[in-house]
Amino acid sequence: MQQFIDSYDFTGKKAIVRVDFNVPLNENFEITDDTRIRRAMPTLKKVLEKGGAVIIMSHLGRPKKVDAKFSLKHIVARVSECLGVPVQFAEDCQKAQEQAAALKPGEALLLENLRFYAEEEGKPRGLAEDASDDEKKAAKAAVKESQKEFVKTLASYADCYINDAFGTAHRAHGSTALIAKYFPDDKMFGYLMEGEIKAIDNVLKNAERPLTAIIGGSKVSSKLAVLKNLVGKVDNLIIGGGMGYTFIKAQGGQIGNSLHEDDLMPEALDIIATAKEKGVNLSLSVQTVVADDFSNEANTKVVSSHAIPEGWEGMDAGAESLAAWKKIILSSKTILWNGPVGVFEMEAFAKGTLQIAEDLAEATAAGAYTLVGGGDSVAAVTKMGYADKVSYVSTGGGAMLEALEGKVLPGIAAIRGDK
Q: Catalytic: 36?
């Protein structure tokens, strides 16, 4: 049975909380962006305020063995500062029984990096390159078997389980999906997870119409499943960024040296046909800022998106495209934005993406629900100072993408009991 953090009685209980503290560190092991730590604080503080103790678990990076540079000890001081209490540290997440048992109400313990163990991901490590299929199968079975003990040990530390790590919700890992079964009546989402799930549901299940999806980025291949899922659900589908040139070329347009994927042109035509069949307004770029080199200092000019000269490549959406998209955005009640519409990392080609951010801010102020999801678009809206001017900014890149593809996320299903 799923519980809810606001109504659960944490008095005298220990909560083991899966967070996403996979924060960037510089060469001196200093945190360069603590957003993920700060976003988890409301959940952790709630447990402490209601008389409980917290056992915090997370991963950091993608280590394949114990590696000091990926140790969570580097972030203990910052977590303590944000939480407002001294955070203890367990140097081995599988040997923290005594520290966990000694925790008193109001105290916190951070476990060492979960991914120091192969059992967290459930994948064998250290196999020889020439290992036979039988050896691979045996290694996989061995890890799966030992994973049960790994998860059982983590669960033994606490009375209840909270998942507040949306960034890993799409992974069926020990700490995100398997541990929940040890808490049949004492498992719940943290505030961050609740917010992410509500944001997705606001777009995919409970959207006020018209519903518009703005899908950008460089490659169709990375967003194909998203496009296929959304084309039957939205009223307007704006496709921008590098991925748009595959659609334009598929329709017979001249795209010069612009990024494209020839093998996906049939898929692009299928999406166009599906949109037409379902009455969805599919909007591609009509005007493009092109450059003679993939560089911020390149020569540029503005041309029709269907007539890009040889030797030139599309780098940003032109004014006519942006004007058409603004009209769609401002007439919408619900808007999803996933992926930039130009090479926003280069100042010369950031105007289109900035304009989308401004349009979303204007639509939000006028009462629309706006969700920004996906690593690059989140980076863009944050960099441009619009993160607090839209309805919701997602923290989970891969998890958000899989949710938009219509997949059931293991970390969510484990709490809800979904199949």
A: yes
